[in-house]
Design brief:
mainly alpha; about 70% helix; globular
Length: about 375
């Protein structure tokens, strides 16, 4: 008699689905390494320069967000600068934290680190679903070790925009989108739009993705509604205060930004490094453009290129906020031999420490 075949244990489909959503080891490792590099640099400065930890993590725009939280959106001061170029999400969040007796700088650090971890995780989910584990891992490491990631360790809102954009694309790109996944995407787009003036570009890219790839106009409109309402409400509030709904743009003249034309006449190393970061990012995207979704190209182009005319300082961290840049970097790096990838990651680590040191010593604006 022929023996019965051995029983075959099939994997639990639900368990497999759950595991696909758990952060893999590469995400955890990339997050930890990036935190060690930046906060290690910060800790060194605390010891060497006898500077308070809280003062370092609230440098530059961080001070503005704390001031707005404490005093509100005040009129321009003697230098023409005011809180009007900043959007309300982060000050509102800090207000809630201080109301709950949590120090503002601690609340800010918790937010940015959670958001950055979520962004790395979301990028891996997106790339593993649409590409491969190898590309996903390379993309995550490139994002974690890009020099201007120091902004993801200070009280800055850019990590929130990054996480919202990545997860919005994860939600709309599901094989079987539901009302719930679209609602989450809409709320994430609104979160990005309430966080930075150019956060609305996340909504533009998401809407483009839905229309371009799926031709679902009504769905695109519904996903965009929360963002339109948030930005519209904020512009109405600015009109009430200043009679200028675009005060967040007009007020930027107080910062004396350098444009691409002006950078050839007079610029410092800070401006040149911001411009260099943007040029590298744009070059990588152009190199790999055939492997990128059209909507990702829209996001990268609209987020980076206009700043060449509006103000170059800040482009370094804007580059860090545009996940398609790191998708392109992952696509370019994943096929390379392990020694090549190791060299690139090591160079990224060195650049992260160097940029962090200069930002934290108040030499460069992040």
């Amino acid at each position: 008699m022929t023996p019965a075949p051995a029983a075959v244990t099939l994997p639990d489909a639900d368990t497999g689905a759950k595991r696909r959503w758990l952060p893999p080891g590469s995400v955890v490792a990339a997050f930890v390494v990036s935190r060690v590099l930046v906060y290690g640099t910060l800790a060194t400065l605390v010891v060497v320069r006898h500077t308070a930890f809280a003062d370092l993590v609230t440098l530059w725009d961080g001070r503005w967000y704390l001031q707005i939280s404490a005093l509100g959106f005040t009129a321009p001061g003697p230098a023409g600068q005011s809180g009007l170029p900043f959007f309300p999400f982060l000050p509102g969040y800090i207000d809630l934290a201080t109301w709950a007796a949590i120090p503002a700088w601690i609340a800010g650090l918790v937010l940015v680190n959670v958001a950055f971890a979520a962004a790395l995780w979301g990028l891996h989910v997106l790339m593993r679903r649409d590409r491969s584990d190898k590309v996903a891992s390379a993309s995550v490491w490139c994002l974690a070790l890009f020099g201007y990631g120091v902004a993801f360790a200070l009280v800055y809102p850019d990590a929130v925009v990054l996480a919202a954009s990545v997860w919005a694309f994860v939600m709309i790109g599901r094989d079987r989108p539901t009302v719930g996944s679209d609602l989450v995407a809409a709320l994430l787009c609104a979160l990005a739009a309430s966080t930075r003036p150019n956060g609305i570009l996340v909504t533009v890219a998401v809407v483009f993705a839905i229309v371009w790839k799926q031709r679902q106009w009504l769905r695109a409109v519904l996903v965009s509604v929360p963002s339109v309402l948030v930005v519209g409400a904020w512009m109405l509030q600015l009109w009430v205060w200043t009679r200028d709904p675009f005060a967040f743009m007009a007020a930027k003249v107080g910062w004396h930004e350098s444009t691409l034309i002006e950078v050839f006449d007079h610029s410092d190393w800070n401006t040149r490094f911001h411009l260099g970061a943007a040029i590298v990012a744009i070059a990588v995207v152009v190199w790999q453009w055939r492997k990128l979704e059209a909507a990702w190209l829209v996001l990268a182009g609209t987020y980076l290129v206009p700043s060449l005319a509006l103000g170059i300082v800040g482009l370094g961290r804007y580059t860090n906020t545009v996940f398609p840049v790191f998708v392109a970097a992952g696509e370019a790096l994943a096929p390379r031999p392990q020694p090549v990838r190791a060299i690139v990651y090591a160079a990224g680590a060195v650049m992260t420490v160097a940029v962090s040191w200069n930002v934290l010593t108040s030499a460069w604006v992040p």
